[in-house]
């Protein structure tokens, strides 16, 4: 709890100077001229209009459906009118809350100690968050992040209580599925803050398969074909099903039509050249990764020609693209491989099947708890003799 308190306090202090700031850029359209914030407008209109106050089914709609964020703006308007400080206060408070949750997640993944603290401090102070926290319309990102982390933490708790985990107990079985339902509801909430929030479902599945159970890709295939560990299969299946439901409802609600962006909003998508579109879209993740590593060039608007299109193979930025994907692949191969924990005591070495204990405790299966829930044999090496038990 100390790490969370320190990091969230730093996040709060760093952005206190924004409380005296005015509205800027997109704040005018989203707040000052948005009819959905006015008391005479039925509040239910929020659930039929896009982020900018235009009917979702209108041909000119941006299709950005973020009703929970708009609802928070309406509450701000009801309490303080168009006084900017109240809007900024909510943004800063949300950022502190997100930092608290992120530090808690870091502690779950990295264990107690300085690494979780450093991760939380980096998150609290990273310059790339400036636009989202200091700009009022950035609340959509901060709110989505809040629900995203809550959903992921609930799912992690579900994994710990699910039958087959060391910490699981039959009395905790109902709680196990309550945590899963909470995770699914919060994932929907994250999407209703901002569209990208739905990706927490994929992140949760990745956590379950490759971090909590520490499986290899081959073991995931075996898991599906041989129907091993039905609890894990059920959880991941529910995540996938819920994601499909959310996306289907989202598409239906906006009139079964994709958004139509102008050339200035998304020049890459509007380019007639397939080569230009491909090279540019492949480069964008590399550019965003560089902003995380070296945020020396930030912008409040990346539309128009803020990022010039890649039109030829000879564009030197293609080297960044190659380096990014090669590096990402190498990290995936190293990070998602079958990690084993080797314990040495009294001249004996035991290898538990991919189950790693951290800081003296773990939620994963151990050889003593291995049963039909195990995804492979448990091997032990004693006095130079290898034995395998299924």
Question: How are the SSEs placed, and which strands pair?
Answer:
Elements (H helix, E strand, L loop, with lengths): L1 H13 L12 H6 L34 H14 L3 H27 L3 H12 L4 H5 L4 H23 L11 H21 L6 H13 L4 H9 L4 H24 L13 H4 L3 H20 L24 H18 L5 E5 L2 E5 L25 E5 L2 E5 L1
InterPro entries: TMTC_DUF1736, TMTC_O-mannosyltransferase
Pfam family, one: TMTC_DUF1736
Protein name: DUF1736 domain-containing protein
Structural class of the helix and strand makeup?
mainly alpha
Task: Give the helices and strands as they follow along the chain.
Answer: HHHHHHHHHHHHHHEEEE
What best-fitting shape do the alpha-carbon axes yield?
A: globular
Distance between the termini: 41 Å
- Per DSSP, what share of the residues sits in E-state strands of 2 or more residues? 5-15%
Biggest sheet, open or closed, and with what strands and sense?
4 strands, antiparallel
**Order of strands side by side in the largest beta sheet?**
1-2-3-4
Radius of gyration: 24 Å
Extract low-pLDDT stretches: 340-390
Count of runs of 4 or more consecutive helical residues: 14
Helical coverage, percent range? 40-55%
**Tally of distinct domains:** 3
Average pLDDT: 83
Extended strand count: 4
